[in-house]
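Researcher: Predict the fold of Bifunctional protein FolD.
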Amino acid sequence: MTALLLNGKELAAKKREQLKKDVEHLTTKNVVPGLAVILVGEDPASQTYVKAKQKACEQAGIHSVLIKKSDTITEEELLAEIELLNQDKSIDGILVQLPIPKHISEQAVIEKIAPEKDVDGFHPINIGKMMTGEDTFLPCTPYGVVEMLKEAEIDLVGKHVVVVGRSNIVGKPVGQLLLNEHATVTYCHSRTKNLREMTNLADILIVAIGRPNFINAEDVKPGAVVVDVGINRVDGKLCGDVDFDSVKEKASYLTPVPGGVGPMTITMLLENTVQSARKRL
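Model: Structure tokens for Bifunctional protein FolD follow.
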């Protein structure tokens, strides 16, 4: 058996075409979706991500604003900048590109963004709504993972999902979203005992641990669906948290890296921004 690919790049392209039409429709109603990104400092990876977001906005017809700030900015100054965007009626979505300098509280920044403009889905109010299954902005990477599974028509009801990783950005929310889809969810992390025994119980294995090629064929139940959220650079090449070459012979479905979950993250950010603009309309 060779795993079928869960191709995030293809699904992202399909969704972005639809988003472009949605934006055109909103524009006829005199509403142009607007996304503001605040970039603090000169982190190369952050600059790359922000450029990709800007390009995606441009292609979809979304008004994009980039605000660059020095890493010497104070927390008070950054919060004041966010407040200006909260009040700006032309902006539907606000995100502060992480990571930010250590002298600024990440939580304070997240909580300063108005929940109705929190298109990253990180504000405690939006996280709370996600937990209770209410309509809200969903965190972009977990949202993209669930959309990929649905697009492949993978049945989620009653399936045992094992999530390896418990970050607030991916691990915790992806488990909750799948719980909302009636899956049975187990969380594993760096202190889990007998990790291999746990991963071998998974009908759907989601790996977001940040360690290159950490999961191999011995960790996977035959026929499992494996979603690799990791992005690592080893010897100048990108790879995931899953050893693709060994796992592809055992899994039924598998995401590639690159071209799997990654393209979906920005796409769901655009989706959230358009959703916010619809609410403004």
